[in-house]
Amino acid sequence: MRLAVKGVSRAFGGVYAVRDVSLSVEPGELRAVIGPNGAGKSTLFALIGGQLAPNAGTVSLGGVPVQRLPAHRRARLGVGVVFQAARIFAGMTACENVMVGAHATTRAGFLAGALRLPAHRRDERLIRSRALACLERTGLAAWADRPAEELPLGQQRALQLARALCAEPKLLLLDEPASGLRAGERERLATLIGDLRAEGLTMLLVEHDVAFVMRLADRVTVLDLGRVIAEGTPAEVRADPAVIAAYLGTTERADVTRTGTTEKDGTTEETAQTTGTAHE
Ligand SMILES: Nc1ncnc2c1ncn2[C@@H]1O[C@H](COP(=O)(O)OP(=O)(O)OP(=O)(O)O)[C@@H](O)[C@H]1O
Question: Is the beta carbon of 36 within 6 A of some atom in ligand 1?
Answer without folding.
Answer: no
